[in-house]
Amino acid sequence: MVAQMEQHVLEVNGTKKQILLNARTLFATHGYDGTSIRQLTSSLNITPAALYYHFASKNDVLEAVAQNLYERSAELLERIESYDASPQMLKKTLSEYYDVLAEDIDVFVLIYNDAAIQHSPVGKRLRKQAKQFFTHLVGDNPSVEDRMRAAGSVGIIRLSLQQVGSDFEIHRSKIVERALTVMTD
Question: What is the pTM assigned to this prediction?
């Protein structure tokens, strides 16, 4: 009896994980609005009822897809609150930002590129986090130059992660150094 329950839990968790992996791919390919429940289920050979067993709606699927990025970003924001403005702490901030994005760059790009997601509740929460991070980099009353440096620095990290494939650790120090150079130029 216990073995059957354990097998059921594994199957349920496996199905949920497959739905999320499939949703990431479909949302990235067709956009959030362009992906239907039928598409989410048919490519996995499950029924819509099976999807609704795990998620109440397509928006709940999106929330689950973005959950790790949101949580890791929240943890980053909490940590950097206590960081001072020294170059060492700025480098640490950029390194930690790199790590957060590296883990979920495909989700970040999906949210960044899809207007429907940007206007969804999870998109709004992630955009708010991005603004908080940017404010941490530039302060409350930044000059135009400060904004440009921060935008360039963050852009270097984001765009580089999109280009390096899965070799995130190999390129980490070089990318973070370049972002720091732009930030402190």
Answer: 0.85
